[in-house]
Amino acid sequence: MDFQLRDPAETAGRLRAWLTDVRGLADVEVGNTAIPAGTGASNETVLFDATWSGPAGPDRHHLVARIAPTSYVVFPDDTFALQFHVMRALASTSGVPMARMHWFEPDTSWFGAPFWIMERVAGQIPSDTPPYASAGWLAEATPEQQHRAWVSGVRALAGVHTTPLADLRLPPGMLTTPDDPLAAEIDRYERFLAWAEEDKPFALARDALAWLRRNQPSAPAGPPALCWGDARLSNLIFQDFEVAAVLDWEMATVGDPLLDLGWWVFADETLTTGAGLTRLPGFPSREETAALWRSATGRSTDSLDYFEVFAGLRFTVIMVRMGKLIVDMGFMPDTFPYDNLVSQGLRRVLSRV
After folding, report:
1. What is the model's pTM?
2. Is 136 inside a domain boundary?
3. Which of 29, 30, 250, 301 pairs with 220 at a CA distance of 20 to 30 A?
4. In what residue span(s) does the Aminoglycoside phosphotransferase domain sit (predicted)?
């Protein structure tokens, strides 16, 4: 299954027309348009530069356009508009490092789907392929620099969790708080799993769901908070080993912020030691990471084991869906959606509880 392949020159022309006709900007020029390989699952990404006339002369911007997926979708719920509004709210009301969000366009006539435009943030992103523990700028850094990057990431995570929900001022009906946020999130991923399985039940995921329901904590450790969702090093832009921007908010929700800390810990373990690699020497341990987060948020981490299992379940469900795309593209065997590093990580954390 192929993603829509856009022509960079045609895309640049449409962006120029939109900036002129819709935003009312004058003397618009668009150039250096690039569409990174692999874009299109969660959304399409277009990198471009734009110049227009400003009060004091030409305004020059390095920009990113994100276009909602038009072919294969990973998530059953449409959260495209939610991502934009959460990112814009955090950029304007919190201390969380965020890209500046410019405009959201719901009209699908321009690119066949809604899109938004944000400022591009310069910096470095830890790699998933190859894993950041095996190669790249973070692996080549000193232990002190690695420690600095990890701590900065955890502090950015805590910044999300300590932002008052009322300060976000999201559009009505967007990102509401259920009576029981954790139960609602479990229900959400049970529906997601049923949709992704396509009548082929996944016993491991079903077992994890049953365990999560049996062992759900009796009461949350604090009030519901904004949760990032895909809380991983690889969704952060760094400048000089400090977080410059938090990316990828398609999994944003309201709930116990241990959802994010559990995901952060699970993802790092799964993609390093779970892949046969050694964690980077400068990275704090699980216990040190939990202590840092507790200090920054004032919240308990007593249920962290539970939320690591939930992270494994959620990531596994996503990989069922994403894995089928990878199989369809001919990159992996048919067993991959049900047997991969993430599902192996879920089996591992289940065995420990």
Report:
1. 0.95
2. no
3. 250
4. 36-265
